[in-house]
């Protein structure tokens, strides 16, 4: 079964269409990246996938259900995570906040509304997700004392706490240096052995090294499968693609990599 199916989805906030007949799929344990120019509709598409808006035509299903019905199957790491760096909250507490399911199941009505302490199941779950992202040694540290990359790992652990089948991240590496970007994407690649990942990213040259599929979105969408391409979107030894070249290649229905020694590929 496909984890996410977007079928011929069109959407407009007002008269101007933002998405026009957009289709894409995320399979089980696939790592899919959405790229595209500013204003191309990436955040809007994520909002539709999470059930915040309804498409005007077309259909979105997550595990065969509507986005609203499937909400608990989706983990979300928002863009520019707003953490008050002065607030004295520990890493472990930040991660445990991502586990609303346990509160509902294990606590009384008062604690459901105002959770003041966490039970052992939640603590163990938070510890294991911190282990998954390589941050368990920092669990008692203040969130404000971590680097941008470390903080992003903690936010990923927080989203994993709800045991999602689909993890969605909106520009997880903005304002992180290239080494930090590579670490985050290689972590996502590792996580995609157990769950499906959909990530919006502007870090083109890095994401093409890690993603299984890249969807170029600019009102309409083109999907490029990087696994089955006759030539990967990687330059020959000693050469390199700049971001503009990559964006141009991906913005076409077929990736014509011939000028770099490759063959044309139909997506
Ligand atoms: N709430 C809204 N009301 C009206 N128009 C909106 C709204 N949100 C976004 N838009 C418009 O929809 C279009 C797509 O915006 P969106 O934020 O989805 O693009 P994006 O690809 O995520 O851009 P960026 O890369 O800059 O984050 C833009 O023209 C934007 O101005």
In terms of topology, how is this protein built?
Elements (H helix, E strand, L loop, with lengths): L3 E9 L4 E10 L4 E5 L6 H8 L7 E6 L11 E4 L13 H6 L3 H7 L2 H5 L6 H13 L15 H13 L5 E5 L7 H14 L4 E5 L3 H4 L5 E6 L1 E6 L17 H8 L3 E3 L7 E3 L1
Parallel strand pairs: 3-7, 3-8, 5-6, 6-7
Antiparallel strand pairs: 1-2, 1-4, 8-9, 10-11
Bound molecules: adenosine-5'-triphosphate.
Notable characteristics:
single chain; 267 residues; alpha/beta; Rossmann fold; six-stranded mixed beta sheet; 9 helices; globular; binds adenosine-5'-triphosphate
Explained architecture:
The protein has a single domain (2-229), classed as P-loop containing nucleotide triphosphate hydrolases (Rossmann fold, 3-Layer(aba) Sandwich). 29% of the residues lie in helices and 23% in strands. It has helices spanning 42-49, 91-96, 100-106, 109-113, 120-132, 148-160, 178-191, 204-207, 243-250, and strands at residues 4-12, 17-26, 31-35, 57-62, 74-77, 166-170, 196-200, 213-218, 220-225, 254-256, 264-266. It has a six-stranded mixed sheet with strand order 5-6-7-3-8-9, with helices on both faces. Helix 5 packs across helix 6 (148-160). The protein is globular, with a radius of gyration of 19 Å. 37% of the residues are buried. Bound molecules: adenosine-5'-triphosphate. The site of adenosine-5'-triphosphate (ATP) has 10 residues, from helix 1.
From the helix content, strand content and strand pairing, which structural class follows? alpha/beta
- Overall CATH architecture: 3-Layer(aba) Sandwich
| CATH homology group | P-loop containing nucleotide triphosphate hydrolases
Total domain modules: 1
Provide the list of bound ligands, each named once.
Answer: adenosine-5'-triphosphate
Order of helices and strands: EEEHEEHHHHHEHEHEEHEE
Q: Major beta sheet, specifics? A: 6 strands, mixed
What is the topology, as strand order, of the major beta sheet? Answer: 5-6-7-3-8-9
The CATH top-level class label: Alpha Beta
**Number of beta-strand segments:** 11
Round the Cα radius of gyration to an integer and report it.
Answer: 19 Å
Keywords: ATP-binding, Nucleotide-binding, Transport
Domain ABC transporter: 4-244
GO molecular function: ATP binding; ATP hydrolysis activity
Family: Belongs to the ABC transporter superfamily.
